TrEMBL record, chain B:
Residues 91-383 form the ABC transmembrane type-1 domain. PROSITE patterns: ABC_TM1 (PS50928). The chain crosses the membrane at residues 25-43, 87-112, 133-154, 184-203, 224-244, 264-283, 365-386. The keyword Glycosyltransferase does not apply. This is Amino acid ABC transporter permease.
Length: 363, 395
């Protein structure tokens, strides 16, 4: 129902005098309303809006090495940034059609809810509250993480367990699940602590580096990344305890199933490509020479509709792999052996190799 | 059509459309209705959209368990308390830093403002440099200066700088002994209140006597004796019920005593020093605004420079100073929201965390706006009372 009609209906039920007002009000507001209605209509389909503007607006971390941080040329690097590129490749056939919006933990959900970004790929933990009350939909788990602690071993020799941290000052980022887990962990273990809470990663890093806090807590992958940015990384150790489950993944707004499916299946396609051995190097070759499953995934089956049913082109998987490689390549390049972080695959290995990464079949 | 002569004598007759009074009322009513409609439409639209996006709304979240801890709290708070209480903690923290900042900024501001008018070249120049430096730096940078530049370069807890009276200074803050009140301590408090009441009474009597006879009475020293002496007497009489909890070194930090955290210290110092530079200029303008003739006349009556400043110039300057001073107090209160950059848990920081944990953006922002508005109105109201007291009483 249009705004003008709505006004009309409600005004009729009120006094006669209000009718005059109705006309005037409509006159005043008509222009504004038209504009807002137009934007409301386009918001109904994120895919159309994205295609119309020609790029995906992707919310990422302001700076977390391995996940999303700008390099010396100002280009965004990392697992989360590459995931944005993968979605752009699926939609446009071109992984560069992404604009990045760096967000603090506190800003991220409002940015997505308000439509400022189309996709949130910012090491965000999937929780029931965020999936329901916040009006989000998580598309999958691009990185299985857990919360840990880091201390300065040089200044605090002898601390080798998080259970020894009673009385410590702990640096933490506000508005995160980390902040909540921290409170729960110390309470459960009947320990005291002193939270020093910052809004931005950079501020928390600087405070920890200057010795304001005894310990730093965030997701373990984050700790490894942050350690690299400290003034003397060798002095700091990550404690063995993992105090929570932190499944990190991309999220979209609720109420747009098509866009949700595109993001979700982009993630599955990355996994499927790794499982089938499709890499950035051999994808063109496999288009012609691959087995039936490889050909189906790559959209080379005759009369295939897998891609178009999703709302993208049939060679979407080819585009994704060409742009960022498969999940394994993405992982190794950003956080694994090929990166300074050198994080082992562990839980993030494919299900065929003892990990948790598992994609439903693309058929 | 009426003729020109008729129009000149009775301009309002004829059509209502041409009546300027009716016209102006009509336009005002239309404008008011349009505004109400616009607000109603914005609210309606927001609610519609929140429902469409399936985002929770309403203030029920205030009763939910907060789940996060807050470092500085004036009232008892743990992660088991509600979001509502967490926001209250933030509100109190904002109020504490604003009040402390206002007091310090006023003291520094008055000293520097008067110093800028000093006859001493060195004092005058130092005060000018102070004003020019702090007035021209954004407050956030002043906060960072104190936090990263001054306080974080202090030594770690184990190498704390020891200060007199069992106090310590390190990068975790300033620690000093905490007073522990024993049995009978209420007597000291009672004596203190009694001392203040009696000083006030003495001051009144002394004034009346001076008005009547012209004789002066040493009010200041009598008041000091009453306010300090009476509680001391009570302390001795009730059998020394006061002991001190001294800060001690433990594994990570100093424990015990009272800790003023660096976040609070840097925010408090930054706001005080920043706002003081503006207050100094207001005070200087106020004093300059008092006609020179007043000083000369007071001098001719035989008053010395101290009493001239205290009894003649400053009371008149205050009338000029108070209105702009009020806006500086409001600025200081609002600038305290910059606390978020260094992790002091003020209202903005905590409401922001609540916003993020509940995912409800509009309600916490509304609470924040209402609180800052409330604090500002309260400050204005208090300053208006002060202003009314200071205003010229015509006889």
């Amino acid at each position: 129902m249009g705004f003008a009609q709505k006004i009309g209906q409600r005004a009729q039920t009120t006094e006669k005098g209000l009718r005059v007002m109705k006309h005037i009000a409509i006159g005043i507001l008509a222009a504004t309303t038209m504009g807002l209605m137009a934007s409301a209509a386009s918001a109904a389909s994120t895919l159309e809006a994205v295609k119309a503007k020609g790029f995906i607006q992707c919310g990422v971390n302001t700076g977390l090495s391995g996940f999303s941080s700008p390099d010396d040329k100002g280009e965004w690097k990392g697992l989360d940034a590459d995931f944005c590129r993968a979605v752009a490749a699926a939609v446009f056939g071109d992984g560069t059609k992404v604009k990045f919006t760096p967000l603090s933990a506190k800003e991220r959900f409002t940015a997505l809810q308000s439509g400022e970004i189309d996709l949130l790929s910012r090491n965000t933990t999937w929780t029931i509250n965020r999936d329901t009350a916040l009006g989000l939909n998580f598309a999958g788990v691009t990185y299985y993480d857990g919360q840990g602690f880091m201390v300065n071993a040089k200044k605090l020799p002898g601390v080798n367990s998080a259970l020894q941290l009673s009385g410590a000052a702990v640096c933490v980022q506000s508005g995160t699940t980390t902040e909540l887990n921290l409170a729960d962990y110390f309470k459960a273990n009947k320990m005291e602590y002193n939270p020093v809470v910052f809004e931005k990663v950079e501020e928390a890093n600087a405070a920890y580096d200057s010795g304001r806090c005894d310990a730093y807590t965030t997701d373990q992958s984050g700790l490894y990344g942050i350690r690299l940015t400290l003034s003397s990384p060798g002095d700091h150790v990550v404690l063995p305890e993992i105090i929570s489950k932190e499944p990190l993944g991309p999220a979209v707004r609720q109420g747009d199933d098509q866009w949700y499916h595109i993001v979700k299946w982009t993630y599955f396609a990355l996994l499927q490509a790794e499982e089938l051995g499709i890499t950035q190097a051999n994808v063109d070759e496999l288009k012609a020479s691959g087995g039936p499953e490889v050909k189906r995934v790559l959209g080379q089956e005759a009369d295939t509709k897998l891609g178009t049913d999703l709302g993208v082109s049939n060679d979407w998987v080819v585009n994704i792999v060409k742009a960022v490689g498969n999940y394994g390549e993405m992982f190794e390049r950003n956080v694994g052996a090929g990166s300074p972080l050198k994080i082992a695959r562990g839980l993030n290995g494919l299900w065929t190799k003892g990990g948790l990464q598992y994609a439903p079949p693309i058929r | 059509m009426a003729s020109q002569e008729v129009l000149r004598e009775e301009p309002a007759r004829g059509s209502l459309i041409n009546d300027p009074r009716v016209r102006s009322i009509f336009i005002q009513v239309v404008a008011a209705l349009a505004l109400i409609l616009l607000i109603w439409w914005i609210v309606d639209n927001t609610i519609d959209n929140l429902q469409r996006l399936r985002i929770a709304s309403g203030f029920a979240f205030l009763k939910g368990r907060a789940g996060f801890d807050i470092a500085d709290s004036a009232i008892a708070y743990s992660s088991d308390n509600t979001y509502g209480r967490a926001i209250l903690v933030g509100l109190l923290n904002t109020a504490i830093v604003a009040l402390a900042g206002i007091i310090t900024a006023t003291i520094i501001g008055f000293m520097v403002g008067i110093g800028r008018l000093s006859n001493n070249w060195l004092i005058r120049k130092i005060c000018t440099i102070y004003v020019e430096v702090f007035r021209n730096i954004p407050p956030l940078l002043v906060i960072f200066f104190w936090y990263f530049g001054v306080l974080s370069v202090l030594p770690l807890p184990r190498d704390s700088i020891e200060l007199p009276f069992g106090s310590y200074l390190n990068s975790r803050g300033f620690y000093f002994p905490r007073a522990v009140w024993g049995e009978g301590a209420w007597l000291i408090l009672l004596a203190f209140v009694l001392g203040i009441a009696m000083s006030w009474f003495v001051a009144r009597k002394a004034r009346q006597r001076q008005m009547a006879t012209g004789q002066q009475f040493p009010v200041f020293w009598t008041s000091v004796a009453l306010i300090v002496g009476l509680p001391l007497l009570a302390y001795v009489a009730s059998g020394f019920p006061l002991s001190f909890d001294l800060p001690k070194k433990s594994t990570f930090n100093l424990t015990g005593g009272f800790q003023v955290k660096p976040e609070f210290l840097s925010l408090y110092l930054a706001l005080s020093f920043y706002t003081a530079s503006f207050i100094a200029e207001i005070v200087r303008a106020g004093i300059r605004g008092v006609s020179r003739g007043q000083t000369e006349a007071a001098g001719a009556l035989g008053l010395r420079s101290g009493p001239i400043l205290r009894l003649v110039v400053v009371p008149q300057a205050m009338r000029i100073v108070i209105p702009p001073l009020t806006s500086q107090y409001l600025n200081l209160t609002k600038n305290s929201s910059l606390a978020i950059a260094i992790g002091y848990p003020d209202l903005t920081a905590i409401a922001g965390t609540v916003l993020n944990q509940t995912g409800q953006a509009i309600e916490p922002i509304m609470i924040m706006m209402a609180v800052y508005l409330g604090l500002s109105l309260l400050t204005s109201a208090i300053m208006n009372v002060v202003n009314a007291k200071m205003a010229l009483v015509e006889r």
